[in-house]
Amino acid sequence: MQVEMSINQIADLDEMRLILNEFADRHNTKVDLQVFDWSTAWAELMKISLYGHGPIVSEVGSTWMSSLAGQNSLRPFTSNEVASFGGKDNFLPASWQSCLDLTEDIVLAIPWTLNTYLVYYRRDLFNKAGIDESTAFDSFEKLTDTLERLRMVSPEMLIAIPNYGNSVGVLHNASSFVWDTGGDFIMPDGKSVCFSDPNTLAGLARYFSLHKYMPTAARNLYDDDCTNAYLEGRSAITFRSLDLLSQMKAVNVPKEVAQNTGIAVQPGIPFLGGSNLVIWNHVLPSQEALAVDLVRYLTSADVMMTQFQKVKYTPANLEALNQVEMDPTYFPLAKSLRKGRPFKRVPLWGLVEDKLVKSLNHVWKTIFATSDPNVDEIIRDALLPLEDRLNITLSQ
Q1: Dist CA 78 CA 86 (whole Å)
Q2: What is the DSSP string of 66-79?
Q3: From CA 228, how far away is CA 240, in angstroms rounded?
Q4: Is-contact 91 41, C-beta < 8 A?
Q5: In angstroms, rounded to a whole number, what is the distance separating the alpha carbons of residues 108 and 106?
Q6: pLDDT of amino acid 259
Q7: Does residue 306 surpass a pLDDT of 90?
Q8: In angstroms, rounded to a whole number, what is the distance separating the alpha carbons of residues 389 and 396?
């Protein structure tokens, strides 16, 4: 007997295969692994959900769970199975919440990984600019002051953040600014969006005001472009996930970057994401116990620590996360996760997210194409018509 599993693209696939091979050896089975690119993963998961065919265990982005919850394609976990994973108290409350159905009575997934954006910055350049790194990112005002000071000493690219194509990183980064000003994107009942809320607009204005620190070289950057710009020494600051650290060890990074990289918590309220493990309803009765064992194995503290060390998967298991937090290097990571906030769990969030990501990327494109951009006006022109269209859909 074998179990078919899907995960999303990771930096070190070979190490993940070794982790899965250990499970296979213990259970005298085989794990047939499929790897989805993050850009196409949602479409692949929808195929599995609609047709009831393919992997029986899958990694699902936590923000996608509310859209899947209403499709009756996920096998619920029993109370005894949940207890065998350590219970809900073994995971961050926000992470556990994403695993429940919309009634919050049924457990449809188990938290696997956590994700947040961290600030990576060059200590040597901060020292030259006389910047106190302990407070440089405490607020939006501190961030802009830091960027102003860096103008005199940094590379051409002061800050590298995603601002091109349909990068979901644009929404993730914008969220921390919006939440910091008391704004949001969607109402708690999921029946209307709130892009025109003054607090939301204020947060977006702060976020897009960063264009002032983005010369030509810092424009039209996708997620990987931001990582490469920092690792190659062309950027003084970037907002990236923990993956940047693992890539720093895997590629030939200039000495001045490797030896002078600092990590801090993002200004505002960081986005909290991650992924969960689900078992699909089309699992055969003869495979159920093995599928549950695989999920239990991958979410256990010991294996999560191995995954953290080998592939930089940040553990959702709190026992493992507490061990990670003991290393001073990762204290900003743990602080950001505990401070972070996920998107609201509403049935059509996937639709809202898709449309919003495209509109926010369009705002960047318009700003970069305008010699003296009126940021407030550009934001309103892009989002207010979208708000009207989405509200019609959501209210039905």
Answers
A1: 13
A2: HHHHTTT-BPPBPH
A3: 11
A4: no
A5: 6
A6: 93
A7: yes
A8: 12
What average pLDDT does the segment 24-42 reach?
91
Residue 270 has pLDDT above 80, yes or no: yes
Alpha-carbon gap, residue 298 to 228, rounded angstroms: 30
Percent of the chain with pLDDT over 70: 99
Going across the sheet that includes 235-240, the strands are 157-160, 235-240, 118-122, 261-265
CB 247, CB 11: distance < 8 Å: yes
- Beta pairing, strands 157-160 & 314-315: unpaired
**Cα separation of 332 and 244, whole Å?**
14
φ, ψ at 293 (rounded to 5°)? -60, -40
Q: pTM (2 decimals)?
A: 0.90
Burial class of 347 by CB neighbour count within 10 A (0 to 12, 13 to 18, 19+) = middle
Q: Residue 20 in contact with residue 50, Cβ under 8 Å?
A: no
Q: 1 pLDDT exceeds 90?
A: no
Would you place residue 371 in the very low, low, confident or very high pLDDT band (cuts 50, 70, 90)? very high
Query: In the prediction, which pLDDT does 228 show?
Result: 93
Q: What is the pLDDT of residue 158?
A: 94
Rg of the Cα trace of the chain?
21
Question: 348, 190 in Cβ contact below 8 A?
Answer: yes
Name every residue whose Cβ is closer than 8 Å to that of residue 116 and which is 6 or more positions away in sequence. Answer: 241, 266, 270, 271, 272, 273, 314, 333, 336, 337, 340
pLDDT band of residue 155 (cuts 50, 70, 90) is confident
Q: What is the CATH number of domain 2-108+273-339?
A: 3.40.190.10
Give the whole-angstrom CA distance, residue 51 versus residue 282: 9
**Do residues 195 and 383 lie in contact, with contact meaning Cβ atoms separated by under 8 Å?**
yes
Bridge pairing between strands 2-8 and 57-61:
parallel
Q: Which CATH class is domain 118-270+345-394?
A: alpha beta
Residues 131 and 145: their CA atoms lie apart, in Å, by 9
Return the half-sphere exposure (C-beta side, CA atoms, 13 A cut-off) of residue 249: 10
pLDDT in tens, 196-239: 999 999 999 999 999 999 999 999 999 889 999 999 999 999 99
Per-residue pLDDT tens for 312-348?
Answer: 889 999 999 999 988 888 999 999 998 999 998 888 8
Domain 2-108+273-339 matches domain 118-270+345-394 at the CATH topology level: yes
Token pair of 124 as six digits: 């040597």
Domain ranges of the chain: 2-108+273-339, 118-270+345-394
Q: How many residues does the chain have?
A: 396
